[in-house]
Amino acid sequence: MQALIVIDVQNDFCPGGALAVTGGDEIVAGINDKMGRFDAVILTQDWHPAGHSSFASVHDGHDRYSVIDMAYGPQVLWPDHCIQGSEGARFHPLLNTDRADAIVRKGYNPQIDSYSAFFENDHKTPTGLDGLLRSRGIKLLTLVGLATDFCVNFSAVDAAQQGFDVTVDLDLCRAIDIDGSLDAARTAMQGAGVTFA
Predict the structure, then answer these.
(1) Catalytic site includes residue 106
(2) Whole-prediction pTM value?
(3) 173 is known as an active-site residue
(4) Catalytic position from the list 46, 151, 158, 169
(5) Could you tell me what percent of the chain has a pLDDT over 90?
(6) Which of 27, 44, 71, 91 is most buried, most CB within 10 Å of its CB?
(7) Are the C-beta atoms of residues 117 and 155 closer than 8 Å to each other?
């Protein structure tokens, strides 16, 4: 069985959003078209409480996109984004959410960010996606969404390390690309055995 994992196609990651990814809205129609080819469709949703520890606004003297050390490792400090219940946290209005079998929310722990759809950034706390997929007998995953170099990358690497067969459809992803993060993400995914379509 195969699943399409749609990573964080939310208003704040699309043009006009708080953490806009260039061209983030350009992939929505293609993702919708692809949904019918899979046994399951899972959406992930960044879902931060206000004042989340990954927000630059809660760290005096630190700029957006700077990196600090947290208890779980390095953390990029982001603009406030995808705050629970906000318009920015909603899925892009043209994304076919009715086709989703499940929605996995992540990043809701105020002290730990969560790039991956499988684990929070401590790499220990699971989101529950692994169990959902295994209980349905799903072994083949295709990932699409935002952003290639962060949430897609971390999700793909974790999925491969959990034993899933993982493909990332790069045509249906867009990247932030901070200081070479896209090249680093491609290297990490390839090193984990992820294939690209």
Answers:
(1) yes
(2) 0.97
(3) no
(4) 151
(5) 99
(6) 44
(7) yes
